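Fold it.
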Amino acid sequence: MTKPIYVLNGPNLNRLGTREPEIYGSTTLAEVEAMCRQAVGSTPLVFRQTNSEERLIEWVHEAIDEGAGIIINPAAFTFTSLALLDALKMFGGPIIELHISNIHRREPIYHRSYVSMIATSVMAGFGVEGYPMAIRAMLARLARAG
């Protein structure tokens, strides 16, 4: 069986569709998950969201043992969590850091990502359409790695 791609989402992303729609749009996280499942095809997908840093790190640990790749939208933990960075450093496969908004066009506090220090690739500013784009990019990367 093929190892799954993990799509991990951090705090407040469960509020997509209602949270700052001028920045994040009106698409819900359930709709984003459906977009990802359609894009991934027959490859197994683990799609999760948490508001807990501890749980997010535990899921990274799970992906270390069971996953082929990680697509992560760490949300606010992007800019605050050395613990998340340390967990991601242990992952041997590709990591795509994903942000719905272009974090570099936002307030300066959003410009320094700890996750970018370890991410294979970074995607930002594509809106929720970035999720299926990230899935396709991950599938291509994994296919090249063979």
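The chain has five helices and five strands.
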